[in-house]
């Protein structure tokens, strides 16, 4: 028992309880908790709690954890069904009802009564937006890494940059989360020698956006992929990054450095650029 | 002017203001607002508001919109820097400070002071988790659609199902959001004729999870891809779905129907299964 307690890598458990996926509760709660850096917390989603039975099962789960941790868990709830929410609230926990304090002021402000229906934000109910996301994912996959010039005019944005600068994850994220059609093209040594972008991009110049990266970080990332290769050497990375940046400067392509940025941060910046271009 | 007002497809503007990407504010606010279905709202993120200058620019933006809409915008803020937050609060708007009501009770509960530092949830600062996500995306891409059996033992889950049942978007989402390595294999007519799964999957049977879909919906999705083909015909879709479900039943593979589910809902269920298996 003592061993088990000593071995634990966390002090408290946090539950995100929802009648849907729990993504909203988790995103919000996790973001709040990053402001309490020194607390050792274990986070756990309890999704699809949409019946009295499941609410009771959630309570048992939370109570078991309370015993195990010898501390009451923290519960973030986005449950909108009052009877279900009231059951979970009875668990041995510190309960945070995330929506409660906002619903009434919003009703007043909007002059509309809240439907108190189960969250629709991550259901497939918005068929059109959903179809757009799936189409954008297929587009990103078929237009990854300069695979094809077909349908390039359909792109909302075309990302360019050296290999491993973050183009693929960014394209997929833009598609998945925002239904944005993003193609991406690598800038390769042949382009630098010719001092020309891949030819098919000139027609779509206004859609180009560049990703760059620090040569050190690039070498690190490439080493993982092809250890000891010329491709991953710091000399080659220094050359490629300098050549790519000078090409982007010459061609008037806006770019950002992805070195210390998350996929979400890069994608958010790209979205801002697309909007600013009126795209 | 009258024309412009009549042509507007929304009545109110909602701003999500953040010192980071604004994803937390948007996820939360959007989820809240789905409970006010009849309100016609236009949503707009204002990300990276991390200086006094940018706060003042945000205020100008909100005030311009207030004039245009002839209604004050609704602002959801996750700004944690008090001076910046106080500036934005002064805009012509109904201001919701999303974190304010939770920080103090959490300080008490955790016995830790909030750092009031800028949200870290969507930065690349957690290098290890970030590297895991990127590796998982590369894994999902190289193990999409049964491309290879190499490194299949590294998979956290292997999705199976007929073509267009939702395997690829689900695999990519699991990788991107959760760093889960998901491979996926199509179940094709040849498999049904042989009455065997693709051979390489038998060794990894415990990792299999199935996606099914209603034949009607499948035919719809396939029609978009290959209009008028045998592949997309309702007869063929009826056959493939029945054959795939009977194979999954025979092989003891758990599955869900993706027909009315979003990528997030499918992924959340798959995650629950992985956890339940102790993976």
CATH architecture of the largest domain in chain A: 3-Layer(aba) Sandwich
Give the biggest beta sheet of chain A.
4 strands, parallel
**DSSP strand count of chain A:** 8
Average pLDDT of chain A, rounded to a whole number, is: 92
**Highest CATH level, the class of the largest domain in chain A:** Alpha Beta
Strand order of the largest sheet of chain A: 2-1-3-4
**CATH domain topology of the largest domain in chain A:** Rossmann fold
Strand-pairing-aware structural class of chain A? alpha/beta
Radius of gyration of chain A: 24 Å
The total of helices of chain A stands at 11
Dominant shape of chain A = elongated
Oligomer, anyone?
A: homodimer
Count of the separate structural domains of chain A: 2
Protein chains sharing the most extensive interface: A-B, 68 and 68 residues
Query: In what range is the share of β-strand residues of chain A?
Result: 5-15%
Low-confidence stretches of chain A: 1-5
Helix content of chain A: 40-55%
